[in-house]
Design goal:
478 residues, 20 helices, 84% helix, globular
């Protein structure tokens, strides 16, 4: 891994973790103040707003990274690409906002959530001004990271200052949305240092096909991700949504580090292909898979066994029913991690847009079917199972096509060996869960430390170059 990739990975890791970790710092407090049903309300409304955001963005978060990365270094070309995508996004966002307003006032099921949905319009517009795709395309992760950390600190402070009682749920949602809005303002203003917003020489037509392809892809993908929350809220209660939302939030924290890695790698993989360095491209894919296995397996074991303690720490009393959904969801760290390698780092740079869309269809069919049959019976656990089955279908489809195009097979042998190497860790976890049960904090801290130490020693023993590099730098500074 080159020095620039390491730096970008670190910045992107901080950025991605901050997006989840800072809300997690407030989550134990918020869950105890607002209680499970209000947490469910926020999760349900957010899932609805996110649908409109999908329509607003279409595939700009992917197409934008690709377009900016291809023209990086040429201000005029970047300005043309940025302006073309931004003005197109302006039209789609305006349409999405109008439809959201109409929906909030006309759909009877949404009437109890009307105030929240109107606040959601601010979130919708803020996401449009974030232009995060521009910064990822230029690989300017340092700026995004510093800005995010500052604003997130202010967000955490505001939660503790203004959210004092159960009835402050709308204030909580406002603060969450405003943190996105402030980020968006800084992002958009700072981007003007690198590009000029213009109406001249716009090139929207070349982007239309991939924008709609990826937009449709993300919409179809939502049929087995965010749709789970919407469907669960429609057919059950705010409490069940609260249980599922809690499990989902913990999952996002755990996978955030690897997501940061794939986000950094995507523009780099595109550049490698554009330069004809196919062998190096394949090597990076293999490295990504090995990184995932080293990270995911111990984390899955830890989270599955100590789910009750983690839920108690994060959410507190009243969220015990979130343990089962969490245990069902946790294997997705490995499944979606492999998906990110296959789709974000492989099929996307290869511009196999039709294949990516086809994969999402398989997942959507499995997701819709599973939700229909499982949610009425199993409620939040049914949503978790539906998501697990859907992502497994997408992984199998993606692997089939990647093997077909570049003959990169699924690393069964590596996964088996890594699982075998972690058997002693599993035994330590079982012993820890049985004998270290005085306090949930003590249990999680001790066994979490055991996981980190064991995993680092194991990767050093296996001569993982990335881990060895970080360990050597740490030892030199110590």
């Amino acid at each position: 891994m080159s020095t620039s990739i390491k730096k970008n990975f670190l910045y992107s890791s901080f950025l991605t973790v901050a997006n989840y970790l800072f809300p997690l710092l407030t989550f134990p407090y918020v869950t105890r103040v607002l209680e499970v049903d209000n947490i469910g309300v926020c999760g349900y409304v957010d899932s609805i707003v996110n649908y409109f955001s999908l329509f607003s963005l279409l595939g700009i978060n992917t197409v934008g990274v690709r377009a900016i990365a291809s023209s990086k270094g040429d201000r005029e070309a970047m300005s043309r690409a940025f302006s073309s995508l931004f003005w197109f996004n302006t039209a789609t966002t305006a349409l999405a906002a109008i439809i959201l307003v109409v929906t909030a006032y006309t759909v009877e099921k949404f009437q109890p959530y009307q105030d929240f949905l109107l606040v959601g319009i601010v979130k919708l517009v803020s996401i449009y001004f974030m232009v995060e795709w521009f910064y990822r395309g230029t690989e300017n992760f340092k700026y995004i990271t510093v800005r995010t950390l500052v604003i997130k600190c202010l967000y955490v402070a505001s939660i503790f200052i203004f959210v004092k009682k159960r009835d402050d749920v709308l204030i909580y949602y406002w603060l969450t949305v405003l943190s996105i809005a402030v980020n968006a303002i800084f992002n958009f203003c700072y981007a003007r240092n690198f590009v000029s917003l213009t109406f001249k020489n716009l090139e929207i037509k070349p982007h239309l096909r991939p924008l709609f392809y990826f937009g449709f892809y993300f919409f179809i993908t939502s049929m087995y991700t965010s749709f789970n929350v919407t469907y669960l809220g429609w057919h059950s209660s705010d409490e069940e949504v609260g249980y599922y939302t809690t499990a989902f939030k913990l999952y996002t924290i755990l996978i955030s580090i690897f997501t940061a890695f794939t986000g950094v790698m995507m523009p780099r993989m595109t550049n490698l292909l554009s330069q004809g360095k196919f062998d190096e491209f394949v090597q990076y894919i293999s490295k990504s898979q090995n990184m995932l296995l080293a990270f995911a397996i111990p984390v899955i074991l830890f989270a599955a066994i100590f789910a009750p303690q983690i839920i108690e720490i994060v959410a507190g009393p009243g969220f015990e029913k979130a343990v089962t959904p969490m245990r069902i969801i946790i294997p997705l760290i490995l499944i979606i991690g492999f998906e990110q390698v296959l789709v974000t780092q492989t099929l996307n740079p290869l511009k196999k847009d039709t294949i990516i869309l086809m994969n999402s269809f398989f997942g959507a069919i499995v997701g819709l079917t599973s939700n229909y049959f499982l949610v009425p019976i199993l409620l939040s656990s049914g949503s978790a199972v539906a998501w697990l089955l859907s992502e497994t279908a997408v992984l199998l489809s993606s692997q089939y096509f990647v093997t077909k195009f570049i003959n990169l097979k699924f690393p069964f042998k590596s996964m088996f060996l890594m699982a075998l190497y972690n058997v002693p860790l599993l035994l330590l976890f079982i012993l820890g869960s049985r004998y270290i049960n005085y306090n949930c904090w003590v249990t999680v801290i001790i066994m979490g430390s055991v996981m980190v130490i064991y995993s680092v020693l194991l990767q050093c023993k296996l001569k993982n170059p990335v881990v060895l590099s970080f360990v050597n730098k740490f030892l030199k500074k110590a």
